[in-house]
What does this fold into?
Amino acid sequence: MDTELTKNKSNRNNENKMLTFYDHVPRFLEGSDSPRAYLERCINTIIKREAEVQAFVSMNLVRARADADASTMRYAAGKPLSLVDGMPIGVKDLFETEDLPTEVGSPLFKGKCTDRDAAVVQGLREAGAIILGKTVTAEFGFYSPGPTRNPLDITRTPGGSSSGSGAAVGAGMVPVAIGTQVVGSLIRPSSFNGNFGFKPTFGAINSSGAHSNLSQSVLGMHAGSLTDAWIASFEAARFAGGDPGHPGLYGIDEPMMSTKPKALARIETAGWQKCSPEVRELFERLVKRIEEKGVNITDRFCDINVESFESSVEPALDITNDICGYEFRWPLSSYQRRGPNAISSNIAQRLERWKSIENETYRNLLQQREKIRSQHERLKDSVTALITLSATGAAPKGLEYTGDPIFAVTSSILGAPAISLPLLEVDGMPLGIQIIGYKHRDAELFGIARWIMSIFDHKV
Amino acid sequence: MDTELTKNKSNRNNENKMLTFYDHVPRFLEGSDSPRAYLERCINTIIKREAEVQAFVSMNLVRARADADASTMRYAAGKPLSLVDGMPIGVKDLFETEDLPTEVGSPLFKGKCTDRDAAVVQGLREAGAIILGKTVTAEFGFYSPGPTRNPLDITRTPGGSSSGSGAAVGAGMVPVAIGTQVVGSLIRPSSFNGNFGFKPTFGAINSSGAHSNLSQSVLGMHAGSLTDAWIASFEAARFAGGDPGHPGLYGIDEPMMSTKPKALARIETAGWQKCSPEVRELFERLVKRIEEKGVNITDRFCDINVESFESSVEPALDITNDICGYEFRWPLSSYQRRGPNAISSNIAQRLERWKSIENETYRNLLQQREKIRSQHERLKDSVTALITLSATGAAPKGLEYTGDPIFAVTSSILGAPAISLPLLEVDGMPLGIQIIGYKHRDAELFGIARWIMSIFDHKV
It folds into this structure.
């Protein structure tokens, strides 16, 4: 097993650096480059790779080019609308778009148009961003994957359910793609495709107009760089707000400054037992490197509060699956009535069990989730952020299984912000490390992420 | 002005008693009546009154009759599915239905089918209820009203935005109709049509699959009787759950027992200044009657906590309008792009202002709402429930203006359960009184409502 700390993603990082949208803005303003030219480079990459990667369900190149031209004019006039004016963006096909069908990874929605934009799409268009196309999602954003392949090794899964968004960014087709996470759909594919993945605080970016209304559904970003992940998230929330009733994403409209964390808690969770000795060793080396830079590293063995948290979060995946399964009975039961093959057997089987979850059981599960969140909040005084893996290893071979969400589920159940950083390598494939912050402190987490990247000599 | 306490709605109450679904169940079981026969009586009333009332947008009588026959068979076998097996229900046309279009009161959605049931519709069908048709809503559930007239006086508004649901129940066309409330859309039309209106704790009944995702949107019931309001709500929540992440509606599957409250706080709010002396006098007489039955009545003049609450809730309507306006920019901005007449000028004008609300302002408004809620929670120890009016007076003449939501907004901003009871009469028209309880104590509030009705000699 080839396990190394920085080798191949430093190559990959150079690739992505070429794509980092934010770095191009000065050139757009001075006229040596333009959003239209940037878009054409993205389209060229799509032409080269899409046949084998299959990241997109549909694209609107005519509109994308027209919107890029309009953006080019705004830069020429010195008046871009926002930090993402002209940024080409892929949108997970759970989100409605006025110009393209929203097919939700299901044959039931083949060709279905709703003639309106989801809130985030509407907001990003207002900010001047370019909606290039819809990216493949697993059926209803859950299990049964689409045709997408991992761009770094097409015999492997790109992860799910934001398969297309993860792969499109991993292949360098777009600098940023929108995803969602309920269990592990942002952090896991980010890890498998070597991307930066950002799962914000629950509700921080408006997810209205998406086929995704579970109580852990959160809208986030796959990006080729930390900077683009931040500016896309910030501008999306600035123009679209947060989910109704939520304060949205706090922060400023520029890339976060690097911030050295005081103390990180090294978290194992139920995922640790599923990792190979090589992966564990790799993670420990990375944590050691951080510790050597003067960060206090704590863990379950030396801090009783961390141990309490670890023990409370142990059943996170089971609790999450039952909470979301219960909530997902709608609309699945309604779809199921349309015919024997309306929903995949994969989901139909699960639905039978979900239907048996009692209301009282669900209430208890919500209470358990609250308890885990309280345990997490208790770490606030002594721990700046948690650090753990983003996945148990490299993207699995084959396309049927999108990989284990066991590490990603931690930030999902907490409703807390998390970022996956493409810092490790296993089997010649990327593996992410995950840092998890506290609710509404997303910006602070970006600062920590930036600092961590800096000690591994990465341009972020 | 003809202002009386019990006269005409006691007649009306007899009418509604004939319709009370729950009272028919023993006859369904013994075979002297049937859900099919009950449905036909509803249809007969519709045939008689619909031409002038115009409560429905669409109906599916073929399916309703088939479903009623299936229900009749279940009763004959002694195996009804729930307390609402066979209950004909009208559904506000914001909620999706697999068999009928969901037109949202907007020409943009004319004839639009989504081929799926909203969560509450799916749940009620599973409980054996009969979805009779879709009821008229104001445009997008907001301002511009549809053609519906008040069944008690067709020169008057039925209120909005749940105009059709309020009128359908008021006309005796259905025992129960589903509505929603963001500002005043359940409590106000209930008052105007002489119905019982129930606005549950925020999130208590699953509103997924409705064009209504604002942070105060709540699904509730218009009903001809308190008993039917409860059983329809309880079974809806039992089969459909609450909104994702919410515990749903607490209670039991039978009509609540009458419970005499220990203390009620007589609440004025900003609405009091808008009431005529006659209406105030009428309300004071009613409160006096309750006091004479041994309930401790407190108010802003004799309880400093009530005064604090009154003063915090004073700007409730402005805060609500700005919160919901900000949240409603999506999907309105997306609709607006479709053409100059895509949305009414009424809404378009408001949208311009809503677009100018800053994210920071919205965050402050959310904090103000939280403060009002805290002030309310502080009354818990000394006050069993709040009592106030449901509207400033009778339904206004004309159809253009759906009436002032100033009294209804109190329970909306609190997220607390509220019930409108048709106990007063002004100008020969009904006027409701509103009782407001505490979050998740909806069942307790039904007990209090039942007790209040009992002292006015009403069968509930």
Q: What stands out?
A: The first strand of chain A starts at residue 3 and ends at 4. Chain A has a mean pLDDT of 94.
